[in-house]
């Protein structure tokens, strides 16, 4: 079995307007329906958060977007390296947020600024071991509890947008169930486009209108296999 290794160094790091470009995701799964919280997404969806070295708070997996990968591939890679999960990445990013790293300014630009692109990742596989396991523990948490654990405002905003998107997708699926679909040949159906060995991108069923235009072109870049 080939061991997975995390990327190191910043020689391929992307920058824009003196800001370090970062890509990450909110890994999620649906908890089993208990018949009580069927319509309460905050108590039905679990998100995966990870610990940080020498810190007590939890964060979502994210890291530097490098110049030999798309923003989607970077998000999938960070999920694998930091949280040990693979899955299906929603095509449209949740948004773009600018923030500062107060504790480790050298990681970002000279001023400590980062511009982060966040996605939603439906987890389909959890690895028993992963590249940065020694630095990051992982924990599944209901969305309602995750809001309380978010240390930074931008993380709360990303989680709010995630919840809104999930609610829209659920309503879209309910409308599709009401209308009987026309038969479609199996060969014409494409669930997702493979981005790498650990992730594929699934086109969104709904349009998200409040996504920041900054770098919006990257949300539709769907090249072939890189990794």
Supply database-style keywords:
single chain; alpha+beta; Nucleoside Triphosphate Pyrophosphohydrolase; transit peptide; pyrophosphatase activity; NUDIX_hydrolase_dom; metal-binding
Give a brief rundown of this model:
Helices cover 20% and strands 29% of the residues.
CATH class: Alpha Beta
**How much of the residues is beta strand, in percent?**
25-35%
Reading the helices and strands in chain order gives EEEEEHEEEEHHEE
Spans where pLDDT lies below 50 across 5 or more residues:
184-191, 207-227
What CATH architecture label applies?
A: Alpha-Beta Complex
Shape: globular
Evaluate the radius of gyration: 18 Å
SS-derived structural category: alpha+beta
Q: What does this entry look like structurally?
A:
InterPro entries: DDP-like_NUDIX, NUDIX_hydrolase-like_dom_sf, NUDIX_hydrolase_CS, NUDIX_hydrolase_dom. Its main location: mitochondrion. It is found in: Mitochondrion. Its cofactor is Mg(2+). Belongs to the Nudix hydrolase family. By secondary structure, the protein is of the alpha+beta class. The model is unreliable at 184-191 and 207-227 (pLDDT under 50). Strand 3 and strand 4 (58-59) form a beta hairpin. The two termini are 17 Å apart. It has one domain: Nucleoside Triphosphate Pyrophosphohydrolase (Alpha-Beta Complex), CATH 3.90.79. Strands 1, 2, 3, 4, 5, 6, 7, 8, 9, 10 and 11 form an eleven-stranded mixed beta sheet that branches. Helices cover 20% and strands 29% of the residues. It has helices at 71-83, 143-149, 153-178, and strands at residues 15-16, 19-30, 45-51, 58-59, 62-64, 85-90, 95-100, 113-126, 138-142, 193-196, 199-202.
